[in-house]
C-alpha cells in the first residue's frame, strides 16, 4: 500500500507538469513525446530483450488492451480539462476506485470485505466534500471523464492479472510503446513547435510518470486491486497542494474536511489489512 501511495503521489507530480503545458500543446503530442521518453528509459534498462519478452508473453492480448485503455483514459481526461473545472474533473474521475473495487469482486473474485467497501465509500465521499461540486450537467466533457474513470478501472483489473506472470518493466515498456505508436500517428496533423520549457516539462513528466507506472505495477503484485484502487484517493491531497503552490489556488474549508476523510479511509484500510494479514499468518 505504501508503494501504491508513492506511485499515485508521483502521478500527481506528473499531472502538475502536464497541466503546465496542456493549453500550449495538443494532448496527443504530449502523450507521444512522453511515451517515447519512457520507452527509451525502459530500453536503457532492459535493452532489446524487452521485445523478445513481450512477444513471448502469453498475455499479449491483455497487455494490448490495457495499453489502449490507459491511453484512452489519459486522452479523454486531459482533453476534458480544457472545459471542466478542477472540482468537476476530480470528483468525476475519482469514481474510478469505486469501479475498481466492484470489478475486482466480479472478475478477480476478490473478497469485498466491509473494510474495503467502507474505505472506498468514505474516500469517494471525501472527494465529493473536498471538490465541493455545484452540480453537474451531462455535457460531452463530463461523459469523457466518466469514460476515462471506467477505462482506468478496467485497466487496473488487467494490470493485476498481467502482473502474475509478466514483469513490471515489460508492462511499462509495452504500455508506452502502444501510446507512442498510436499518438505518433494521431499527432502528425496537430504537431506544434516546442520551446525549451515545454520540452523540459514533458521530459520531467515522462521520467516521473515512468517511475510511477513501474512502482504501481510492482504494487499490484502484492496488493488486491480493490485495495490498491482505494489508495488512489491520496493523490487528491497533492492535487490541491500543487494547485496552491503553482497556480495560487486557495483551498476552501471543505477541502480540508474532505482530505481528512480521505486520509481516514486510507489509514482505516491499512490498519484493517495489516491486522487481517497478521491473523492469517498466525493460523
UniProtKB/TrEMBL annotation:
Pfam families: EamA
InterPro entries linked: EamA_dom, EmrE-like
Key word Ligase present: no
The name this protein goes by in its record: EamA domain-containing protein
Residue ranges of domain EamA in the record: 3-129, 142-269
GO CC list: membrane
Signal peptide: none
UniProt topology in membrane: Multi-pass membrane protein
Compartments in which it is found: Membrane
Homology family: Belongs to the drug/metabolite transporter (DMT) superfamily. 10 TMS drug/metabolite exporter (DME) (TC 2.A.7.3) family.
Residues passing through the membrane, by range: 30-51, 63-80, 92-108, 115-132, 138-158, 170-193, 199-220, 227-248, 254-272
Keyword Transmembrane: yes
Keywords, sorted A to Z: Membrane, Transmembrane, Transmembrane helix
Amino acid at each position: 500500500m505504501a508503494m501504491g501511495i508513492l506511485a499515485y503521489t508521483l502521478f500527481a507530480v506528473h499531472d502538475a507538469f502536464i497541466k503546465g503545458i496542456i493549453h500550449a500543446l495538443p494532448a496527443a503530442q504530449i502523450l507521444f513525446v512522453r511515451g517515447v521518453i519512457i520507452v527509451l528509459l525502459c530500453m536503457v534498462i532492459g535493452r532489446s530483450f524487452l521485445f523478445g519478452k513481450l512477444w513471448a508473453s502469453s498475455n499479449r492480448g491483455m497487455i494490448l488492451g490495457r495499453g489502449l485503455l490507459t491511453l484512452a483514459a489519459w486522452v479523454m481526461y486531459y482533453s476534458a480539462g480544457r472545459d471542466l473545472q478542477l472540482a468537476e474533473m476530480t470528483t468525476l474521475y475519482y469514481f474510478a476506485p469505486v469501479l475498481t473495487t466492484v470489478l475486482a469482486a466480479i472478475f478477480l473474485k476478490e473478497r469485498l470485505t466491509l473494510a474495503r467497501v467502507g474505505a472506498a465509500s468514505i474516500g469517494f465521499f471525501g472527494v465529493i466534500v473536498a471538490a465541493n461540486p455545484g452540480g453537474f450537467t451531462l455535457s460531452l466533457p463530463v461523459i469523457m471523464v466518466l469514460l476515462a474513470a471506467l477505462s482506468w478501472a478496467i485497466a487496473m483489473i488487467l494490470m493485476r492479472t498481467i502482473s502474475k506472470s509478466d514483469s513490471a518493466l515489460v508492462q511499462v515498456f509495452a504500455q508506452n510503446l502502444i501510446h507512442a505508436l498510436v499518438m505518433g500517428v494521431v499527432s502528425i496533423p496537430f504537431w506544434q513547435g516546442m520551446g525549451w520549457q515545454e520540452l523540459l516539462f514533458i521530459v520531467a513528466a515522462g521520467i516521473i510518470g515512468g517511475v510511477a507506472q513501474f512502482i504501481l505495477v510492482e504494487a499490484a503484485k502484492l496488493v488486491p486491486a480493490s485495495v490498491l484502487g482505494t489508495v488512489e484517493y491520496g493523490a487528491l491531497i497533492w492535487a490541491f497542494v500543487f494547485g496552491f503552490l503553482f497556480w495560487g489556488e486557495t483551498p476552501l474549508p471543505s477541502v480540508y474536511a474532505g482530505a481528512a476523510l480521505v486520509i481516514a479511509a486510507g489509514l482505516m484500510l491499512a490498519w484493517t489489512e495489516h491486522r487481517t494479514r497478521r491473523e492469517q499468518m498466525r493460523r
